[in-house]
Amino acid sequence: MIDRGEKFAHYRRLETLQEYVLVAQNKIRIEHFRREGEKWILSEVSAPDGTLHLGSIDCHVEVAAIYEKVEFDTVSG
Predict the structure, then answer these.
(1) Which residues span the domain enclosing 25?
(2) Closest C-alpha among 63, 25, 64 to residue 44
(3) Quick check: is 1 in a domain?
C-alpha cells in the first residue's frame, strides 16, 4: 500500500507532521500514527462505537461519524 509505505516514509521526514491517519474503506479500521520524539506510535480503532483522538489538535471523532454514509459489501456464504 502506497499510503503506508512510500508516502508515509516521505511524510515522516516533515518535522511539523505530528499525526498520520489511514482510514480503511472496506471495513471499520482506522490506523493512527502519532509522533513521539523520533518514534511513531501506532494505535488502531476498529470498534464501531470507538473514538479517534487527535491529540495535536485536541479533537475527538466518533468512528460512527467517519463511516456514517459508508455501506460495506456483504458476502453471503
Answers:
(1) 6-66
(2) 63
(3) no
